[in-house]
Design brief:
By secondary structure, this protein is mainly alpha-helical. Among the domains are: 122 residues, K Homology domain, type 1 (Ribosomal Protein S8, Chain: A, domain 1); 100 residues, Ribosomal Protein S8, Chain: A, domain 1, CATH 3.30.1370.10. It has 12 helices and 6 strands. A hairpin with a 4-residue loop joins strand 2 and strand 3. One of its GO terms (biological process) is rRNA processing.
Length: 371
C-alpha cells in the first residue's frame, strides 16, 4: 500500500511539473547550484588552511633513471649475463651512454627548490641511479606527492627540468605512452616513429600546437604534458601512427575541420560547398580574362594639366622660344663671319695672283732692254 501511495504521489508531482520526491532522499536545492558566477568544473587551488595539521605518515616514491644515455651502448659483458644477444641489439635509445647524470646533478637544485615550496623532500642518488621524493611534516597538500612522483618520472624520460616542473600545477597532467611493445619489427618501428616526428619535427610541432601539449619522443616511450582532454587526443594520434592505422596528418586535418566546424557538415553539404567555391573561382577567372582583353582596347588617358603644371609648361615654352632666338642669332653671326672669311679669302687669292704675274713682266722688260 505504501509503495502504491508513493507511486501515485510521484505521478501527481510529475503532472504538476514538480520533481517527484523519493523517500529517504534529500532533495533540497542548494544556493550554489544555479549561481552563474560559480564554475563547477574549475579546479580550485589548494589552500594550506584546509590541512593545517600536515601529513601524519611519510609517503615516498622512487624512480630509477638510465645511467647511460647516448650513442655508445653499455658494456655487453654485463648485459650478456642477463639478456640474450637479440635483446641486447634491441635496447632502446634511452640506455645509451650520455651526460644524463651530469644534467640531473646540475638541474637538481632547481627541482629541489620547486618541491621545497610544497614541503616535499627529494633526493638524488647517483650511485644507484635513482630519484626519491617523500612528504614531510610541512606538507599540506596530500596530492602533491603524486605530482612529485610524476615530476621525477618525467625527469627520468629526459624531459628538461624547467618543463617538468610545470607538472606541479593543478591544471597540468602527464602521461608516458609506451610504444616499444606495439610492434616487434625494429625497422618498421623506427620508420613509424620517424613518421610521428615528421621532417624537421614539423608533424610533432603541429600536434603540439593543435593539442596544446608538450610532447617528447624518447626511445620506446612518448612523454606528454597537458590537460586530460589533450592527453587523450595525443594518445590516439600516437597509437594510430605506430599501429599504421592513420597518419598523423589526417588527425591534424580532422582537428582543423573541428576548429572550423566543417567536421559536423554532411557530405552532401560539403560537396555543394565545394561546387559553389568552384563556380566562384571560375567566375573570377572569366572576369579577369575579360578585363585583360578589354585592357587592349582602352584608349590612353589624356593628361589634364593642373594650373601649376600649365604655368610650368608656359615657363618651359618661353625658355624654348628664347633658346630658339639665341640659336638663330648665333646662326646669323656665324653666317656673317663665314661671308667675311670668304671675302678675305678671295681678296687674298687675287692678291696672290697679281703678285705672281708681276715678275714675268719685269723679265720681259729686261729682255727687251738687252735687245
Amino acid at each position: 500500500m505504501a509503495s502504491e501511495g508513493d507511486a501515485s504521489a510521484s505521478v501527481v508531482a510529475a503532472a504538476e511539473g514538480k520533481k517527484p520526491r523519493h523517500k529517504g532522499k534529500h532533495d533540497k536545492p542548494k544556493p550554489w547550484d544555479d549561481d552563474p558566477n560559480i564554475d563547477h568544473w574549475k579546479i580550485e587551488e589548494f589552500d594550506p588552511s584546509w590541512n593545517e595539521g600536515g601529513m601524519l605518515e611519510v609517503t615516498s616514491f622512487c624512480t630509477f633513471f638510465p645511467q647511460y644515455r647516448g650513442k655508445s651502448p653499455p658494456p655487453q659483458s654485463v648485459l650478456s649475463l642477463f639478456l640474450p644477444r637479440s635483446a641486447i641489439d634491441w635496447m632502446p635509445d634511452c640506455f645509451a651512454c650520455s651526460d644524463a647524470e651530469k644534467y640531473l646533478q646540475e638541474a637538481w637544485p632547481i627541482v629541489k627548490g620547486a618541491l621545497k615550496e610544497f614541503g616535499v623532500a627529494c633526493e638524488l642518488n647517483l650511485v644507484e641511479g635513482s630519484m626519491t621524493v617523500s612528504t614531510t611534516r610541512k606538507t599540506k597538500d596530500p596530492y602533491i606527492i603524486v605530482k612529485a612522483k610524476e615530476l621525477i618520472k618525467l625527469l627520468s624520460r629526459s624531459v628538461p627540468a624547467p618543463q617538468a616542473i610545470k607538472i606541479l600545477n593543478d591544471e597540468m597532467s602527464c602521461a608516458i605512452i609506451k610504444i616499444g611493445s606495439i610492434i616487434r619489427n625494429k625497422e618498421r618501428f623506427v620508420k613509424r616513429r620517424e613518421r610521428l616526428l615528421g621532417p624537421n619535427l614539423s608533424t610533432l610541432k603541429a600536434i603540439e600546437i593543435l593539442t596544446g601539449c608538450y610532447i617528447l619522443v624518447q626511445g620506446n616511450t612518448v612523454a606528454v604534458m597537458g590537460s586530460w582532454k589533450s592527453l587523450k587526443q595525443v594518445g590516439r594520434v600516437v597509437e594510430d601512427c605506430i599501429k599504421n592505422v592513420k597518419h598523423p596528418v589526417y588527425h591534424i586535418k580532422i582537428d582543423l575541420e573541428l576548429e572550423s566546424g566543417e567536421y559536423f557538415i554532411s557530405d552532401k553539404k560539403k560537396s555543394a560547398k565545394k561546387w559553389q567555391e568552384k563556380l566562384e573561382k571560375q567566375s573570377e577567372n572569366t572576369e579577369e580574362n575579360k578585363r585583360k582583353r578589354e585592357a587592349a582596347f582602352v584608349p590612353p588617358n589624356e593628361d589634364i594639366a593642373t594650373p601649376y603644371e600649365s604655368a610650368k609648361s608656359t615657363i618651359n615654352n618661353d625658355e624654348i622660344v628664347d633658346m630658339a632666338k639665341s640659336l638663330k642669332k648665333k646662326a646669323k653671326e656665324f653666317r656673317k663671319n663665314e661671308e667675311q672669311e670668304n671675302v678675305r679669302l678671295e681678296s687674298y687669292c687675287n692678291f696672290a695672283s697679281n703678285e705672281g704675274s708681276r715678275p714675268k713682266k719685269k723679265l720681259k722688260l729686261s729682255k727687251s732692254k738687252s735687245k
